[in-house]
Amino acid sequence: MAKFLLGFMGVGKTTVSKYLDSQYKDMDTIIEEKIGMSIAHFFAQYGEAYFREIESQTLRELLAIEGDTVIATGGGVVISEENRTLLKRNRQHNILLVASFDILYHRIQNDNHSRRPLFLKQSKEAFYQLYKKRMCLYEDLADLIINVDHQSPEEVARIIQNVNKKKTS
Are 27 and 77 in contact (CB under 8 A)? Predict the structure, then answer.
């Protein structure tokens, strides 16, 4: 089954995925290819609700992939009850990457490449509330939780690989 990396935006899901599987799938990239524009532009033009529909469709497609692959999810994939139900069917393969709010906030604030719509239009306090709400949803789906605060992406990937080796031994 596919390994799904879950976690809040900015936690490093895509970066860690690159170290786990050179053929990894990134949900946000797949969605951007489908919609023909950046997620930020899509949010601005069509809204979050329509984006979440496309995200759910993409998740269903990724869950149908046979074999071992690594999939970096978007940070909001857990918002939809349908998506949470789908991810619960992937038990034993959902990996949650967590970081403290302050570290994530700093990373996102300084990321000039990915301008995240939900970050840009909220105060720090509102963004913290979003973080807390989503953390509860992620934790309910996670089979393995790794704190990435003071670890490099390579170190996080090694932890995941070592846990997987122990499961298969």
Answer: yes
